[in-house]
Every structure is written in C-alpha cells, then in structure tokens.
C-alpha cells in the first residue's frame, strides 16, 4: 500500500515537474522567438501578406481539420470561411512593381495609337469637305457657276463619305481584345499609306488650286470626288489585308499544356506569331478544360510517398563498410519499384470506386430535391400571388438537402476551389427559373468544363508572356515553335504547314454497272 502511494506521489510529482518544464520551455521559446520577430524585417527578405476572408468555398483547405463542422455545413447551408496566407519575397515585390510599370506603358502605347488613328481618320473625313468649302470662302466671287453636274457631284460625295464612315467604324473602331507586345504591321502600313496619300493630295491642292485660285469650281469638286474614291479603294485594301487574307487555312498548330499534356489542334491562315498566339489563347479559354493543380499535387505526393518509404538500419554497428547498405538500398528500391504499379492500380481503382459512389449519391439527392421543388410549385400555384416563392428562395429551400452530397463529391474530384456556395445557388436558381432537369443542373459539376465556364477569380491564367525565337511580328512558318507562359503552366505551340494535296480524276463508264442475270433451267426427270 505504501509502495503504491509512493509510486502515485512520484508520478504526480513527475507530472507536475514535466508540466512546469513544458511551460518554462514554451516561455523560453517565446522569449527566443520575440526578438527574431522584431528584427524579421532586417534578417529575412520576405513578408507575409494576410488576405481578407474571401467568399465562401466548398471544402476550404483551411477547414479540413474540422471535418465535423464541414458535415454540419452541408446540413445547415452555412459555409466555413478562412484566411489564406501567401509569402512573397522582395524580389517578387520588385517584379510586381515592374509589371505595373510595364502595364502603364502598355496603356500609354495603346491610347497613343488610338489617338493617332482617330486624328488621322478625322483628317481624312474633313479633307474632301475642306476641298469643296475653301474656294467658296476665299474667292467666291471669281468662281464659275456650278451647274447641274456639279450639284450632282455634291450628292455623290455625301453618300460616299457616309459609306466610308460606316465601313471605317465597322473595321477599325472595335474594342481591343488584347494588348499585343508589338504593333500590328498591316495596320501601321495602312495608316502610313493613308497619311502619305492625304498629304500628297493636300500638297497638290495647295500648289495648283490655292496658289492660282482656280475658278473652275466643277473641276475642284471632281478633285474632291477622286479623293473620296481613292479612300474607298484603300478601305477595300484594308479589308483584304486585315480580314480576308487570314481566312484561308494554311497552317495547323498543335497546342499542348505543359502540366497535364492536354492538347488541341487548330487551323490558322497567314498570321503573325503574336496574332496566332492571340487566336490560340481565345480557343484555349473555350476548348481546354480548366487547369486544376490539385490533380497534379496528388500524383506528386504519391511519387514522393513511394520514394520516401525506404529505411536502412545498421545492425552490425557503425564500423562496417557502407557498400552492403548501398546494395541493400538498391535492391529494396528495385523491389518497391516492381510493386509500385500494383499500388498505383489499386489506388486509382479505389479512387474511381469512391467517385462513382459519391456521384450516385449526388444524383439521387439532386433528383429528390428537384422532385420536392416540383411539389412546392404545385402547392404554390394554389396560393395567392403575393405568397409565391421566387427562384432564389426556392433554391435556398432545396439546397440543404443536396449540399452535403455535392460537397463530398467536389472534394473527391478536387473541384471545390472552383465552386462557391453563392455560385451554386445562382446556378440552381437559374435552372429552376428555366425549368431545367436535374441532369442539366449536374452537368457543370460532373464534368470539368472550359475555363470560360468559371469566374475570373478562379482562373489560374490571366496574364501571358509570349516566348519565341523568331520576331513576333513575322509570319507563321513551317516548324516554328513558340511558348505562351503564365504563372502556373505553359502552352507549347508547334506550327506545321498544311501539305499540298493533289487530286486526280478517274472516269467510270456508266455501262460498266450493267449486269445480266442468268438462270439455269432445270428439266423434270
């Protein structure tokens, strides 16, 4: 009895001592940590930026530890929010400031180009009118009278200028889709051609008409009409160079995403490298499935787990030779490599089984929810118009019954970062408004859609960098390879020229398709 009491007192004393020692150790660690935090700005070249709480996400990584609370979220339609921390260095801050300066430079360059084009266009449209009005203002009394032909030319100039104005607005005054790194060569050549053309007309007008004060007013009006006709021909040339030239397919490009190897093929015409890159990016947002880095991290963690699963123990002591250990490690690695494909096979099979199981639960839950909303609609039709529910309220009413199944499915397929609770409610209310089926509602979540299907905040590719060995203003050629880089992945574009196809004709005689049916006559015995 005394021995038990002594043991208990000893254990309690040890516990008390260990508690004091842990507390003292924690306080000492805090004391050692505090001066480091004070001088952290001088000793480490990094800062930590804490972002404010974002909109609620399904299955946020910060809340994975509270699994029970996540399940309650699925039943009570509440979401777990959290803060995310990102650590960046001073070099990253300098790079961000440089990117901001470059973006300001790009904006200035874009507005400068628009200003030059607008001023030149205004000069083009005012020049024929000035050619007609200046003689009337400067030497009106000396001019010959304008006859019927001259007055008809006024109508011709007015309608031609109107047609030119509409065509210029349709061809040039468009909202820009992207900021290209270099100037568009054909557009710049057209602007230079128009400037030289108008300048030469003004030079001839000043020397032959203004200086001599020509009195033939009908000839002056015909001179203005010739200018408008020439401008219409230049506009036709602009349509050919800017729009029609690139319509005929000449090249086939293969676009490969560097992370997961997803690829697409596109046919392009005669384009420069930068405009071909713009076409590729437009098709990328429409055709490629959204980039999901969570699927790649799963494969990387699996490979790291296989590589880190080897341990070597020295049984005979530290004095022995290490060659035996190295041979044992190589043999163990070879045996593990031989069995790793079995582990991968069973792991993928188990993942597919879980996905199919949770998909079936999700389909059943959504069908039951939509059946309930149909029953609610039947009941609401019997009520007064002021008591009926709008689609938003109906979506909020049936969302809790499917939230938990949808949450688990999105976690299993690693899509939770692309779908917030608000976006799901909006999609659900949209489906209810348009009387869509449960299958139409689930299409967005059962299959990974293109990037344009999701909000811009969920995109991992917003700003791109074009890398090419050739000049980006040069045209496409056979064998050219250029890369489109963003923050998380690259798009590798390989250009191949469409081969020349030679077709031959073979004549078939219509008489060769005639046949004769021969029947063997049988005689009775």
UniProtKB/TrEMBL annotation:
<feature type="transmembrane region" description="Helical">
    <location>
        <begin position="111"/>
        <end position="133"/>
    </location>
</feature>
<feature type="compositionally biased region" description="Basic and acidic residues">
    <location>
        <begin position="36"/>
        <end position="45"/>
    </location>
</feature>
<keyword id="KW-1003">Cell membrane</keyword>
<feature type="transmembrane region" description="Helical">
    <location>
        <begin position="224"/>
        <end position="244"/>
    </location>
</feature>
<feature type="transmembrane region" description="Helical">
    <location>
        <begin position="153"/>
        <end position="172"/>
    </location>
</feature>
<feature type="transmembrane region" description="Helical">
    <location>
        <begin position="184"/>
        <end position="204"/>
    </location>
</feature>
<comment type="similarity">
    <text>Belongs to the Vang family.</text>
</comment>
<feature type="compositionally biased region" description="Polar residues">
    <location>
        <begin position="1"/>
        <end position="10"/>
    </location>
</feature>
<keyword id="KW-1133">Transmembrane helix</keyword>
<dbReference type="Pfam" id="PF06638">
    <property type="entry name" value="Strabismus"/>
</dbReference>
<feature type="region of interest" description="Disordered">
    <location>
        <begin position="1"/>
        <end position="86"/>
    </location>
</feature>
<protein>
    <submittedName>
        <fullName>VANG1 protein</fullName>
    </submittedName>
</protein>
<feature type="compositionally biased region" description="Basic residues">
    <location>
        <begin position="19"/>
        <end position="35"/>
    </location>
</feature>
<dbReference type="InterPro" id="IPR009539">
    <property type="entry name" value="VANGL"/>
</dbReference>
<keyword id="KW-0812">Transmembrane</keyword>
<feature type="compositionally biased region" description="Polar residues">
    <location>
        <begin position="74"/>
        <end position="86"/>
    </location>
</feature>
<dbReference type="GO" id="GO:0005886">
    <property type="term" value="C:plasma membrane"/>
</dbReference>
<keyword id="KW-0472">Membrane</keyword>
């Amino acid at each position: 009895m005394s021995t038990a009491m002594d043991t208990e007192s000893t254990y309690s004393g040890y516990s008390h001592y260990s508690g004091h020692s842990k507390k003292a150790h924690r306080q000492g660690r805090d004391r050692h940590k505090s001066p480091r935090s004070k001088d952290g700005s001088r000793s480490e070249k990094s800062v930590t930026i804490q972002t404010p709480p974002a909109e609620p996400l399904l299955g946020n990584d910060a809340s994975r530890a509270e699994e029970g609370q996540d399940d309650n979220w699925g039943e009570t339609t509440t979401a777990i929010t959290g803060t995310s921390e990102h650590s960046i260095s001073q070099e990253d801050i300098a790079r961000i400031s440089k990117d901001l300066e470059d973006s300001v430079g790009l904006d200035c360059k874009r507005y400068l180009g628009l200003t030059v084009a607008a001023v030149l266009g205004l000069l083009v449209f005012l020049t024929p009118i000035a050619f007609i009005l200046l003689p009337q203002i400067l030497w009106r009394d000396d001019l010959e009278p304008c006859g019927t032909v001259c007055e008809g030319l006024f109508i011709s100039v007015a309608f031609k200028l109107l047609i030119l104005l509409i065509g210029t607005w349709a061809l040039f005054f468009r909202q820009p889709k992207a900021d290209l790194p270099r100037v568009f060569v054909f557009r710049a050549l057209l602007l230079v051609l128009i400037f030289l053309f108008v300048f030469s007309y003004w030079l001839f007008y000043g020397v032959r008409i203004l200086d001599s004060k020509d009195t033939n007013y009908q000839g002056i009006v015909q001179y203005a009409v010739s200018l408008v006709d020439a401008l219409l021909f230049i506009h036709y040339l602009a349509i050919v160079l800017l729009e029609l030239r690139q319509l005929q397919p000449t090249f086939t490009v293969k676009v490969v995403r560097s992370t997961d190897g997803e690829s697409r093929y596109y046919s392009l015409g005669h384009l420069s490298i930068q405009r071909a890159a713009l076409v590729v990016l437009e098709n990328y947002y429409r055709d490629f499935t959204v980039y999901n880095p969570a699927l790649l991290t799963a494969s990387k963690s699996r490979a790291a787990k296989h590589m880190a699963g080897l341990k070597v123990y020295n049984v005979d002591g530290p004095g022995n030779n290490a060659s035996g250990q190295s041979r044992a490690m190589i043999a163990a690695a070879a045996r593990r490599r031989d069995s790793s494909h079995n582990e991968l096979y069973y792991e993928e099979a188990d993942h597919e089984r879980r996905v199919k199981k949770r998909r079936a639960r999700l389909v059943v839950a959504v069908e039951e929810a939509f059946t309930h909303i149909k029953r609610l609609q039947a009941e609401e039709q019997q009520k007064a118009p002021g008591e009926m529910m709008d689609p938003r309220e109906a979506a909020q009413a049936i969302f809790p019954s499917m939230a938990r199944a949808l949450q688990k499915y999105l976690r299993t397929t690693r899509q939770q970062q692309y779908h917030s609770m608000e976006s799901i409610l909006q999609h659900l209310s949209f489906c209810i408004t348009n009387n869509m089926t449960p299958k139409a509602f689930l299409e967005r979540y059962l299959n990974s859609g293109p990037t344009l299907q999701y909000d811009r905040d969920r995109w991992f590719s917003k700003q791109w960098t074009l890398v090419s060995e050739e000049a980006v203003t040069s045209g496409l050629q056979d064998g050219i390879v250029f890369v489109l880089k963003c923050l998380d992945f690259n798009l590798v574009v390989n250009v191949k020229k469409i081969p020349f196809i030679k077709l031959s004709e073979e004549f078939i005689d219509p008489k060769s398709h005639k046949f004769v049916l021969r029947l063997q006559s049988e005689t009775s015995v």
